[in-house]
Amino acid sequence: MTIELIYQDSDLIVTNKPSGLLCVPGLSEPDNLFDRVKSEFKNARVVHRLDMATSGLVIFALNHETQKGFTQLFEKRQMQKEYCAEVYGKIEQQHGEIISPMMCDWPQRPRQKIDWHEGKPAHTLYHVLETKQESTRVKLKPITGRTHQLRLHMLQLGHPILGDKFYNLESSEKQASRLLLHAEELRFTHPISREVVQLSCPPTF
């Protein structure tokens, strides 16, 4: 069991999680990123998570103060994250935003749904990187951090992420062997040193 380190100091590490690996222990799969990290960094603490199907940058704190600092950054929305995705079809607008409240679709959980009456605020920015014959590569920036937010918002836009088994159109889930969503960039103020940390890890798809 290996981990790919992107950044390391005495207070935190940042790893590149592969698609198909849980971030934390779960009932469905015994293997997970947290246990892999703990095998090398015994004081590691969870800061945030990615969906099992999503790849990319994941932070782990190495002490309580750092974990507490990251909690405050997320609560204040001072953690800047950008994702790269390959989506179904051609997006005509070069950039835009999706502001649609979300909540869990309990009969079909873990799926989420748009709900204009009881949903929690959800806000996503998108920017087209490359238009291909049958798909579009986009940069996605979540302003809020709801479960499956990027996946559901892109479906609502009519351009689901390729390989998504939960949110799809016209067999878009069959056009890739994995979910083509990758947490590519992180920018934050280090909770201990107070220096700005900016990290990038390009997708393999």
Radius of gyration: 17 Å
Distance between the amino and carboxyl termini: 22 Å
Element order: H for helix, E for strand: EEHEEHEEEEEEHEE
**General form:** globular
Give the biggest beta sheet: 10 strands, mixed
Structural class: alpha+beta
Portion in helices = 10-25%
Strand coverage percent: 25-35%
Instruction: Give the number of helices.
Output: 3
Please tell me the overall pLDDT: 97
Low-confidence stretches: none
Write structural notes for this entry.
The protein is of the alpha+beta class and 205 residues long. Helix content is 14%, strand content 34%. Strands 1, 2, 3, 4, 5, 6, 9, 10, 11 and 12 form a ten-stranded mixed sheet that branches. It has a two-stranded antiparallel ribbon with strand order 7-8. A hairpin with a 3-residue loop joins strand 1 (5-8) and strand 2. The longest helix has 12 residues, at 64-75. The radius of gyration is 17 Å and the shape is globular. The two termini are 22 Å apart. 34% of the residues are buried. The mean pLDDT is 97.
Name some characteristics of this structure.
single chain; alpha+beta; ten-stranded mixed beta sheet; two-stranded antiparallel ribbon; 14% helix
Sequence-ordered SSE layout with sheet pairings:
Layout: E1 5-8, E2 12-17, H1 33-40, E3 45-46, E4 55-61, H2 64-75, E5 80-88, E6 95-99, E7 102-104, E8 112-114, E9 123-131, E10 135-142, H3 149-156, E11 181-189, E12 196-200
Parallel strand pairs: 4-11
Antiparallel strand pairs: 1-2, 2-4, 3-4, 5-10, 5-11, 6-9, 7-8, 9-10, 11-12
Concise overview:
By secondary structure, this protein is an alpha+beta fold. It is 14% helix and 34% strand.
